[in-house]
Amino acid sequence: MGPVKNVVMKKTVIHTKVKCLMAQPLGEGHDNTIYELSGKLLSQEELAAAVGTVLGKEVQLQQADDDSYADIMKGAGLPDFLISMLVEIQKGIREGTLEVESNDFEKLLGRPVTPITEALTSIVNGISQTNE
Description:
By secondary structure, the protein is mostly helical. The protein is built from 6 helices and no strands. It starts with 9 loop residues before the first helix and ends with a helix. Mean pLDDT is 81; it is low at 1-11.
């Protein structure tokens, strides 16, 4: 599988969206500019290893063809319109069309993006607190 985009914490994404949507000017030269909100590219194997590190156990990566993936998502209760979108995203990852490494996110945030293990730890801790 090809590299996937860096996963960042929800609060980082929200912070960037708020900063971009509020009346905080970005300065000169941003009109009609498209920003790629990605970061360091990770393979799916690297992402699985990072999840395993955070969970403290091995996480095995399983490859699935489009039909199998759609069946898994349907079994998880996702609506058909969302399943088709997710299948297309996975296809884009597999074919390398989503392999865009950029530091635009850091420029807009004004700081480095959150490291993957820190972001995943925050997500896992948030889920754990929700389930208590």
